[in-house]
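Hi Y.,

Following your request, here is the sequence exactly as I used it, all 293 residues.
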Amino acid sequence: MELQWLKTFTVAAETLNFRKASEQLMLSQPSVTIHIKLLEEFLGIALFERINNRVTLTNAGKLYVTEAQKILHQMEESIQHIHAFKQGFRHKWTIAISPLVAETIFPSILRTFIEKHPQLEITIRVEDSQLIEELVDNEIVHIGISALPTTYKHIQSIPIFEESLLLIGPRDAYDDEAGPPIDSLEYLQSLTLFTHHHPVFWDDVLIRLRKEVPGVRTMKVSQAHITKRFIQEGLGISILPHSIVRRELLEGRIMHIPFDLFELPKVSTYVVVKNKRDLEEEFIDLLSTYYFG
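Below is the corresponding structure, written out as tokens. Let me know if you'd prefer a different format.
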């Protein structure tokens, strides 16, 4: 059996049209027909039915298409592994991070870790915090960094830092010393508040805000980096963890609005890990050094 037969079969199974399959594969239509025929002869069973010039999968074809896709996927992975080996990589290591973490100093930490481990082929998966625990549990990733602690008893969630929330708005026309006093209530009454880019605090904060600021206008924006962009464009304000806006504040692209209506909660970031081997221990130590060192 040849891999090209499987490639031809999977494309033909997807299109259910040998002409379209030939176009996608850049083969002649007779070649597609021959590949399918050879595969059927090798397996000893029909994969397609041809009725009134229409092609459909037989029951065997529906079953085998999944198997063919698995074989092709495994072949692609094996090719990637050998290419990684040629580039000097010897091991694969996968980290899942929430979009919130991607907006912090994590890239600097990752660069340090990569420099210490040039033999590692590191993959980063950016996933919602709610999904990271399951990825760690199923060992799809080696370690996760999440805005949520784990709910599984057999998985550890290690708090690596706790931080304050800040009310953030667009820059005004004044410098810090010459401008008039900044009134958070005025901003909340006049601008849209972007919410729900963090999985923990918004429901409770909104309950208290609506008591203090009746009629406050809100808009759900699920990603923190989009929220920051909207703020910079003057579209509204939001409450964000300090680590996410640290750089923009230093560069003067956004403004911290003092908030005194009530005390804003603090939020934490967690390492989620199932198997703490040497590499995981080292990575956790590195995170702790950056955030607490």
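The longest strand covers residues 156-170.

Thanks again,
Q.
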